Amino acid sequence: MSPPALISISGLSHSYGEGSLAKQVLHNINIDFYPGEIAIIMGPSGGGKTTLLSLAGALRSVQSGSIRLDGAELRNAGSRMLTRVRRKIGFVFQAHNLVESLTICENVQIALTVDPSATAQSSRRRALELLTRVGLAEHAHKRPRELSGGQKQRVAIARALVRSPQVIMADEPTAALDRASGREVVELLRHLAREMRCAVLLVTHDNRILDVADRILSLEDGYIEESNLALDRLVDDFAALVDHLSLYPERFPSPEQLAGLSVEFSKGLNALLPRLADMVARRQPDALATRSQRWAASADDIRNLEESLLQIPKAVAGSSPAGGEDLCDSAVQSLDFLLRTAAAALRSRAPRDAASLVTLTLHHSNAQQDIRARFEDQHERSTEEFRNATLDLISLYFRCVYFLHHIASRLKEDITAAPAQAAPG
Ligand SMILES: Nc1ncnc2c1ncn2[C@@H]1O[C@H](COP(=O)(O)OP(=O)(O)OP(=O)(O)O)[C@@H](O)[C@H]1O
Ligand SMILES: [Mg+2]
């Protein structure tokens, strides 16, 4: 799930000018970017955003520190290597730089001229494909002046994407656009980034589009800082999941309620678990990449949750659910409790919260065999279908607990290793 960083920046500083006139504009920047993630870089004018982007985009040479892009070190790199790196990047700028004398389609095709394997026909086909993706296929034959600002920016995006870049770097792509078209442009960037698994580095002053970001960085006087937003969002998602669980009625629910709950629950878990694994892994990408993959696989298992839950009401209709009610209720209640504790521990990063989550989840994990055995005893006479469905539920529940236990252990280690670090990144 979480591969190594696509762009890894460490100890990066940069100055303009020479000798006594030198002005340092970036100070010891350390940051990594990952495939599929959208990072928004904000900050006051002159803070160094464009400088950072041009260094990471191999458009300017690295003076001190290191930038690795897809494994290639940019510091002291030769011009052939820099050209190769630049081809992995799609650039989108505020001024969309379209060529007026060419059609929209030709403007996109330009980006393919460096590719020796592209023929006129294949590049036209590819350009039209991208224009279709950005919703402009029917404008392909027009000139840039016949398009609106937002449409032109979408052409610039198509051009940036036509070579399937690994990274998109966008410097204020919405600055010249009204609210609605600005929104459209970033939504499109997000959609394409997810689909094509590229990283997006988006510089903007526009705080109406912050919600599309996975991460928000601020660059002020050459110092970079990451906001807690991603973590906060995760905690909110946890809370939302907990809200769904608290809708669970006190009594054994009707089949309809159960079905509704299970859909929401598994949707929530499915969205949450890989992201959690991803986020935790990003704090120490190398050591955690493998574990993260395993977690993502267990999220796949949990995808079966929905199905298993849906079987229960059917089974219940044909048997007496006494005892099963209690079991389901207590499983859901304790998961609710664990999720709350996990959300609190993630929020506080207090050693004590993390430690208590470790203990709690371990305890719940150990209880699995007991609960299974007790249930099997009580339900000797239930229908086999009912027993199986409930046992499925129990094991799904414990998969969640098991997962939370990993998160907790990881969090605890992390806090112990870096007590002063308040946020990921
Ligand atoms: N080519 C250059 N030569 C000298 N100084 C430069 C050059 N480019 C930028 N600077 C200076 O470096 C600092 C950072 O500039 P940069 O363009 O990176 O800021 P920015 O965050 O992109 O600002 P804005 O939001 O206004 O685009 C500024 O003080 C700027 O004056
Ligand atoms: Mg700038």
Tell how many strands the DSSP assignment holds.
Answer: 10
- The overall average pLDDT, rounded, is 75
Helix fraction by DSSP (H/I, runs of at least 4) = 40-55%
CATH architecture of the largest domain: Up-down Bundle
List the total number of helices.
13
Unreliable runs: 248-253, 284-288, 305-324, 420-425
Element string (H = helix, E = strand)? EEEHEEHEHHHEHEEEHHHHHHH
Main sheet record: 6 strands, mixed
- Gross geometry: globular
Number of self-contained structural domains? 3
The CATH topology of the largest domain is given as Methane Monooxygenase Hydroxylase, Chain G, domain 1
Using only C-alpha atoms, the radius of gyration works out to: 26 Å
CATH superfamily of the largest domain: Phosphate transport system protein phou homolog 2, domain 2
Are any ligands bound, and if so which? adenosine-5'-triphosphate, magnesium ion
Sheet with most strands: strand arrangement: 6-7-8-3-9-10
